[in-house]
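hey m, so remember when u said the tokens were messed up on ur end? i reran from scratch. heres the input so u can diff it against urs
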Amino acid sequence: MPDHPVEDPFNQPAQIDLGLVGLRCGPGTSALRVHNALELPFCSLRSYLLRGRSGIGAALVIPPLSGHFPVLFRDLVRGLLLHRNVHVAEWKNARHVSLENGPFGFEHNIEYIVRMIETLGPDLNVIGICQSAVPALAAVSVLSEKKSALAPRTLVLLGGAIDPMANPTRVVGLLRERSLEWFYENVIQRVTSQCAGKGRLVYPAHIQLTGLLAYLTRHVSEGRELSRKLMHDDGSDPKSFPFLRLYTAIMDLPVELFLENIETVYHQRRILDGRLTYRGDTVRPQAIEATALMTIEGLEDDIAAPGQTYAAHRICRNIPDARRGHLVVADAGHFSLFHGDRFRTDVLPQVDRFIASLTTQCAE
């Protein structure tokens, strides 16, 4: 049992507003409005809608439960809103979730995504980012096998470790070289501040921030992606949402999810060989047939290097070739896949084109 209680040195909120309400997404468009489509203990499913726009071709964005608040992915959400309504899984800071709501582990992560897709209905385009790639792929696999009518039209995976050993990075090495017991004893703490989640075991924000600042320092010393973003913040609204503030806005993670993700994705790689289960049944990516699959990787990504996300195509073997897409973005690290100029010029148009091509196929 960790004996290091954690206070809240950053006064972290439960959630951070994406600042999109009232935004106009192009000439002649109405102001953007928002409502909660689904409220769950660890997540709010928030819908960003333009009056008069149909729900056809809407996107469900699944940010990773990796520590960053979903506001880090504001550029991606704002870009998608130019052509479609967007729904976002806005995860909550675990320190603000009461113990009465129970644990939240890897299977709960899959369950939440399944429930979101069921709530939003068919004709949906699901976008799984980074750490959410495996649970998003698992959720679509479950729906494809059990409730095929609700299987989304497309699944787009950005910079996710479907197979971390396809091209292992420094991050992969650090996660694999240590046991779950080491992580439990050294980085897990109990919330003691007067938050709703008092008593909950978490991977706390202040420890995560130490690692993120070390990663940032290495990028600066080597002149890599984050160094360039600090010198020139290329976000869509750098004055109100500067990249450094987005990067350092960190939440506590539930202990169950933190440890089970390391074990399931990095130590065991269970989705690759049929050992990942959901409610007692094997998760079978080969059950996906109607859902189109697109994978996107950054050539300079030193978190989920090229090959790790592409591995999804290998295990989703029953998707027709005509319903597949893959993009490797030159001069892009991990964060440029969803933030800044490279995202807007290279990633977003390709995602829009892929989704539009499936819309045309459905119309035909």
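this time it looks ok to me. The chain has a mean pLDDT of 93. if urs says something different then somethings off w ur setup not the seq
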